[in-house]
Amino acid sequence: MQTIENINNTIKENLAVMVYFSAPTCNVCHALKPKLMDALDANFTDFKVESVDISESEDIAPFFNVYAIPTVLVYLDGKEFLRKSRHMSVDEVISEIKRPYEIMTS
Fold it and tell me: How many domains does the chain fold into?
């Protein structure tokens, strides 16, 4: 089970982290996640993903100011870089991350 401490440690210890918030009842969450994971794998060599089921870990979403699902938070070098909720495309998320990620890893 996820904890705030585990997620914060992952963010501190990795250059690029995505935290994906979803719930079992969210059909969009389940359709989006595999596409997003495939796109991350295809475009970035080192991206850590933490998945948070808000129905299991009710304290985590409010801690990160997440009140809608699906929500994607992207951290680059320990700082929140991108926040997308509900309506997002995989291409949109990847294109917003790509340039800063490439600058950080070059």
Answer: 1
Helix, strand, or coil here: 2? Answer: coil
Q: What span, in angstroms and rounded, lies between the C-alpha atoms of 72 and 6? A: 17
pLDDT in tens, 79-96: 999 999 988 999 999 999
User: 10-32 as b/e, with b when 16 or more CB fall inside 10 Å?
Assistant: bbeebebbbbbbbeeebeebeeb
For residue 71, the domain's CATH number is: 3.40.30.10
- Name the nearest CA neighbour of 1 among 62, 68, 78, 55: 55
Please state, in angstroms and rounded to a whole number, the distance separating the CA atoms of residues 7 and 11. Answer: 6
C-alpha closest to that of 1 among 79, 67, 56, 59:
56
Residue 101 structural domain: 4-105
Which amino acid is residue 31, in one-letter code? A
